[in-house]
Amino acid sequence: MSEVAIRTYTGVERAAVLMMLVGEEEAAAILQKLEPEEVRQLGAAMFKVADVSEQEVEDVLDDFVDRARERTAIGFDPRPKIEAVMNRALGREKAESVLARITPAEAACELELLDWLDAPEIAAMI
Q1: How many domains, in total, are found in the chain?
Q2: d(C-alpha 34, C-alpha 68), whole Å
Q3: Blockwise average pLDDT, block size 10, the chain, 126 residues
Q4: For residues 49 and 15, what is the distance between their CA atoms, to the nearest angstrom?
Q5: How far apart are CA 122 and CA 119, in angstroms?
Q6: Range of the structural domain that residue 16 is part of
Q7: Cα–Cα distance between 101 and 1 in angstroms, integer?
Q8: Whole-angstrom Cα distance, residue 10 to residue 45?
Q9: Among 26, 45, 71, which residue terminates a domain?
Q10: Which of 6, 47, 95, 121 is at 20 to 30 A from 24, Cα to Cα?
């Protein structure tokens, strides 16, 4: 995120900026999953952030990416996250059955990770 933010946004306003960046179809699909009050709040925020600057968009996107990195296993070992989600959704026994069928071979999984990394990141791992 930039050192000096031009404007401080609330969570709803940051979500509104992101909504303005996605396609109409995607934004509509997101709105359909919200409660009526959330739709009103987000819609009002979308009008409020309509004059957002390029730097502010960049700040919101940087913040989003930072938060996503903190919460996701993408690009790293996804196994613990997937196992936890499957266990919660299906129960331990069913989850183990599904995971046994869908979990890729160990070597292939580790090698596929390299496709997502830059050379300096790979060098740091070695």
Answers
A1: 2
A2: 20
A3: 63 93 91 91 94 91 83 68 89 88 65 64 66
A4: 10
A5: 5
A6: 11-71
A7: 41
A8: 9
A9: 71
A10: 6
